[in-house]
Design a protein that fits this description.
Layout: E1 23-24, E2 27-28, E3 30-31, H1 42-55, H2 65-84, E4 93-96, H3 99-114, E5 120-124, H4 133-142, E6 145-149, H5 162-165, E7 170-176, H6 188-197, E8 201-205, H7 217-220, E9 224-228, E10 239-243, H8 245-250, E11 261-264, E12 269-271, H9 285-301, H10 303-322, E13 327-329, E14 341-346, H11 351-360, E15 363-364, E16 366-368, H12 373-379, E17 384-388, H13 395-414
Parallel strand pairs: 3-15, 5-6, 5-7, 7-8, 8-9
Antiparallel strand pairs: 1-2, 4-10, 9-10, 11-12, 13-14, 14-17, 16-17
The structure holds ligand 7TS.
Length: 415
């Protein structure tokens, strides 16, 4: 196991992220909004610069040297990310703008094509809006019914109900691997087995999982898996959808345009093979190359070392925050069942006030419903404050967070 990250004294990873040297409100930045987007290491920034300085050209359409180089780099990046998530072949990875587009792609292609009145789509109340709204849209257009797995008082899926919710009409189950608002880690293998025995497909929203742990889509046993590059040290505007070849080949195109066709006639056209069938228009070439550099960066650190480090920082964060008067933390109590998201409320202080006071101390957190309004409804709150951690955060960052929360407490106890 790498000693790079497990020994705080040698903790070098924050040095790889230039933005962490920024000052905010005159103080050194403590960035704890990683569930929204991660910061980018120098190697990713360099890969983007290198691409634009030396390679930039459109892909799959030029015979000039730059276009050849650009196409090779773009397709190598696909192969890199396919290996990174354990796909059997590069063609099974479709580049998208991120997780949101990947879910819309499946709902808009597979969903509109396959669902009919009375079919059931099973999601959960833990989902990010991007794993709810596309299914609502497709349900409204096809007459399919949207059903929900509920969550318990620790923000875990109530899986005792799952076998009863699955039935012969269930066509697809779509759940997050890790919740962005609670940090809950869902048992995907178990969900996959039960979904498969019911004859349904399983879509996994991996936006919060891929940055933090080794994901092997084949081992998980799901049918679709989505992720966003910008949460795993990569650029914005790039992400991926994985599905098995046969499934992708059976699905109609989602967007029409250049790149995705084989032939175009006056009234109809034929489609390119996967993955290009789903990649209409000029893709985010630099983004693909940048996210491949991010995959290299994470694998060089090793996920074992990242997880070990994050576990120690998160358990320290939960310990420190729990000891602050009036702080109520949401999510699973057992650390094995949770990832690096700590959502909390604090007495009468509105989460937006908490985030504003923390911002004045150089501590960046998020406040709001985190695009998970059904989770907020479940806990009877309109918003939470959320600190979300990543590989470059340290226990000192937790101390700065806790000290700033002390300031919030002081302000609110006197006002
Ligand atoms: N699914 C989950 C579980 C997410 O956390 C997010 C983004 C998405 C889907 C959508 O990803 P995108 O890259 O397509 O936007 N989550 C958050 C968040 O928690 N704060 O800002 C974005």
């Amino acid at each position: 196991m790498s000693s790079k990250i497990s020994k705080p004294a040698q903790y070098p990873f924050s040095d790889s992220f230039p933005i962490l040297n920024e000052k905010v409100s005159g103080k050194s930045l403590v960035y704890l909004d990683n569930a929204a987007t991660s910061q980018k290491p120098q190697c990713v920034i360099d890969a983007l610069t290198e691409y634009y300085e030396h390679i930039n050209a459109n892909v799959h359409r030029g015979i000039h040297e730059l276009s050849r180089k650009s196409t090779i780099a773009y397709e190598e990046a696909r192969a890199r990310l396919a290996r990174f998530i354990g796909a059997a072949e590069a063609e099974e990875l479709i580049w998208t703008r991120g997780t949101t587009e990947a879910i819309n792609l499946v709902a808009g292609s597979w969903g509109l094509d396959s669902l009919k009145e009375g079919d059931e789509i099973l999601i959960s109340t833990m989902e990010h809006h991007s794993n709810i709204v596309p299914w609502q849209l497709v349900a409204q257009r096809t007459g399919a019914i949207l059903r929900y797995i509920e969550i318990d008082d620790q923000g875990r899926l109530v899986l005792e109900d799952f076998p009863d919710l699955l039935n012969a009409r269930t066509r697809i189950v779509s759940v997050s691997h890790i919740s962005n608002s609670l940090g809950t880690v869902n048992p995907i293998r178990q969900i996959a087995e039960q979904t498969k025995s019911a004859g349904a497909l399983l879509f996994v929203d991996g936006a919060q999982a891929v940055p933090h742990r080794r994901v092997d889509v084949q081992e998980l046993g799901c049918d679709f898996y989505a992720f966003s590059g910008h949460k795993m040290c990569g650029p914005t505007g790039i992400g991926g959808l994985w599905a098995r070849r046969e499934l992708l080949e059976s699905m109609p195109p989602y967007h029409g345009g250049g790149e995705m066709i084989r032939t175009v006639g006056r009234d109809e056209s034929t489609w390119a093979d996967i993955p290009h069938k789903f990649e209409a228009g000029t893709p985010n070439i630099a983004g693909a190359i940048g996210v491949a550099a991010a995959a290299d960066f994470l694998e060089d650190l090793t996920f074992e070392a990242i997880a070990e480090h994050e576990r120690s920082v998160i358990s320290y964060a939960i310990e420190r925050l729990s000891s602050i008067k009036d702080v109520q933390i949401f999510g699973p109590k057992d650390l094995v069942e949770r990832s690096g998201v700590v959502s909390f409320v604090m007495g009468d202080a509105h989460p937006h006030d908490i985030a504003t006071i923390l911002d004045g101390e150089g501590v960046a957190i998020r406040a709001g419903h985190h695009c998970a309004q059904l989770v907020m409804h479940h806990f009877g709150v309109s918003a939470t404050a959320r600190a979300s951690f990543y590989l470059y955060n340290s226990k000192e960052d937790v101390d700065r967070l806790a000290e700033s929360l002390g300031l919030v407490q002081a302000i609110f106890s006197t006002s």
